[in-house]
Design a protein that fits this description.
alpha/beta; binds NADPH dihydro-nicotinamide-adenine-dinucleotide phosphate; 12 strands; seven-stranded mixed sheet
Amino acid sequence: MLNSEYLQRVYSQVVTRDPDQKEFHQAVLEVLESLDLIVDKHPEYEANGVIESFVEPERVVTFRVPWVDDQGKVQVNRGYRVQFNSAIGPYKGGLRFHPTVNLSILKFLGFEQILKNSLTGLPIGGAKGGSDFDPKGKSDAEVMRFCQSFMTELYRHIGQFTDVPAGDIGVGAREIGYLFGQYRRIRDAHEAGILTGKGLTYGGSLARTEATGYGLCYLTAEMLKCMKNDSFAGKTVVISGSGNVAIFAAEKAMALGAKVVALSDSNGFVHDPNGIQLDVVKDIKLGHRGRIKEYAERVAGSTYTEGFRGIWTIPCDIALPCATQNEIDEDIAKTIVKNGAMAVAEGANMPCRPEAIRVFQEAGLLFAPAKAANAGGVATSALEMCQNSMRYSWTFEEVDAKLKSIMEHIFHNIYDASKDCGVTGDLVVGANIAGFKKVVDAMLAQGIV
Ligand code: NDP
């Protein structure tokens, strides 16, 4: 576990303070294990209480979200915003609407977001928010009333120089539109920079929708090139999920010459040995919010299987988990290795459990952690903020080129950091250390710890 007594004390305080926040503990421990390699060389961290500050959010807001359903009944959900760290820029991070949302999940996501945002090289701090509201099965009018009520409280805590939320699971273009509309009404001002992921007609950026999935493939391609002198061309790829990240990761992997053979949702997965037809998936998922099962009903030669974890029994060269946290455990990781995969890159946040990551690394697979691999979404959100500030918009090609260059830069940054720490190619350590150093330098320089 941890060698440094200082880090042991910090971790034990995190666990004692919030014993039920398992996902948060998991995210903190992974980062502290990386910091263990450098902490002895930095006595100023302990002297200034740097790491104690780093693991404690600057502010956590929780609030009631009452809304009226289509039967006229009042429903009450809980809303959250975890404003974790603003040392290098305004808080930035998505909103998640899903019944499993709680403080542990949002603190883990907000904590990861600090490091991810730092890695983009852009001036954005870390945050995350959301609600235990489930948009699935709700009418558009119900989702609109929920979003309006959510923003009626959230608006006090956000602003283009304070905190800029975006989408995440359950929060796509529709929800961002309703949230933005309510903010504009309350404030009587069109402040485009208060949210990202906006529609193109009211301040959104071209390529933001595609950015997380495309960015995942850009970073993976650079990793394959530099560490294995290889590429996506001719590779078989399995991608979990069939939401925003999964769909556009599939699109880019195919454009780079790979064959994507499986996708999933929380109910089950489809396997199409001939290669997934993405236009059918888009029609199902983006067209009418259908279930992935429908794909097998529409495409001859494909099959549907209940249970979303089974997707990882399908052999592949490259695995891109793009659904949710902790979907790949040790046993699943062993299956992926046994089936001959060469690389795993995390599109979702923390989809691999720590034991699973160890299995991949010990077997010599390339492994790209989420905070680097899926940073393309937030990086493009920051580019959306830039365009909003300039009152100007770049073309799709301009944004996509910036995204590609950011992802390639992130790969080299974390690879070099792994080398500097004496663990060349361990991109988990590289991402944690490179992300951490920039934020902590800013914290120390500002005397805020
Ligand atoms: P979406 O809501 O668009 O899609 C999520 C997908 O994952 C759906 O297919 C969903 O299936 C599946 N899923 C959700 N929860 C579970 C679960 N508990 N078990 C199994 N499957 C599940 O979300 P995104 O694509 O935007 O996000 C996916 C992941 O990527 C998340 O971890 C998110 O934090 C991360 N991410 C997203 C970014 C973005 O720009 N959107 C940026 C960076 C990270 P179903 O429809 O059945 O719920």
